[in-house]
Amino acid sequence: MVAKISAGKSLFGALAYNHEKVDNEKAKVLGANLLCEPADGAFRIGSVMADFNRWIPSHFRTKNPVFHVSLNPHPDDKLTDDQLTEIGREYMEKLGYGNQPYLIFKHEDIDREHIHIVSLRVKSDGSKVKDSKEHERSKAITIELERKYNLLPTEGQKQGELWMLSPVDTSKGNVKNQIASVIKPLVSMYHFQTMGEYKALLSLYNIGLEELRGEVKGKPYRGLLYSALNKEGNKVGKPLKSSVFGKSVEYEGLEKQMQGSSLRIKEDKLREQTRQMVTAALGKTLDEKAFREKLKVSNIDLVLRRNEEGRIYGVTFINHSGRCVLNGSRIGKDFSANVLNEKFSDKEHNVDNTHPQTIQSADMPSINSPINLEGIGSIIDSVLDTPVFDNSNNIDTGSRHLKKKRKKKRRYGRQI
Question: Taking the C-alpha atoms of 261, 189, 180 and 260 in order, what is their torsion angle to the nearest 10 degrees?
Fold first, then answer.
């Protein structure tokens, strides 16, 4: 069983995320601790917030007072609601939250049974619930619960299998929810240090990312657009603003994630671990296809970026076991784009062009290319479907008629 813990500032945000699924009949409340249960059994976010607020002291020093955890049994485990409720209660008790208010939600929007629990990290007297070595203690608790309830062990399983993450398929419809169900777990699980590394990770799931950056009325503007990609790596449908998915996957949220990832990668020596596995795989192979197969054995995906001539200009390794994303040059000069291009260029018949993690250049702007938003208010508004800024003032309308130089763009996504 995998437990994913997060700390936050917004109690309403955590409750709204779960209650939205309840309202859409994709989740339900399994149980509550130290909270009033309504006579009709229907928990409503307004009354729940008021109930939680009774436990929040007027003064406390905890920066992130909200506790949110998801407990994810193995996909093959089939548990009753009573069992899931009991597992949730035992987990909270053993972690030190037995005397805290909390709600247990069961999510039913995917095949894998799992629960979410929302609670408070701050006690009613203003002190903080003990969180030292929280992740280590949590892992020990989940292993203990696996044994007690005869659950399948999740140690060594691929993260994608545990979370049931699936590539976006536009033919299934509801693209917004498909993208949301992928990007939120990815951001919470994986460590990456640049937007380029994040973009490579998204490409595994047929998701594209574009950056909007420039000035509006003299003020800097930064934004992100998420898009669904088809198997050729082309955008399908209208791009979606990052704000519709929540702060964690917006520009500022990702910047904070990248800062924390840098420290985590260094502390856990993930770069060194990844380099050892990549070195072993490369030393035993002579061509790209065999290299990918060797990496797969170590649970590593390879994402290559190629220009129109087929030259490799970017390399990214995604270590699913260590949950980290690293550009080739970051783990060593022997794995840079130039080195791998030279190694594989004279073996064109062995280049794995059909592999889904080969990125080709195409007519899509680079994420790192700045876009001047002045004078294109109507264009941005039509793309985003909502105004980014008021284009009634301080916009040089004459600039719209200037002929702009067409920039070469790049394609990201699965290639067949």
Answer: -20
Residues in the chain: 416
Q: Is the pLDDT of residue 267 over 70?
A: yes
The gap between the terminal CA atoms of the chain, to the nearest Å, is 35
Contact 350, 289 (CB under 8 A): yes
Q: Are 211 and 222 in contact (CB under 8 A)?
A: yes
Residue type, 388: V
Mean pLDDT in residue range 156-177: 72
Fold of the CATH domain 2-156: BirA Bifunctional Protein; domain 2 (3.30.930)
CA distance 163 to 281: 27
This model's pTM is above 0.70 = no
The structure tokens listed for 300 are 């590593």
Query: Could you report the per-residue pLDDT of 178-202, keeping only the tens digit for each?
Result: 898 899 888 888 899 999 999 999 9
Q: Start-end ranges of CATH 3.30.930.30 in the chain?
A: 2-156
Check residues 217 and 284 and name the one with the higher pLDDT: 217
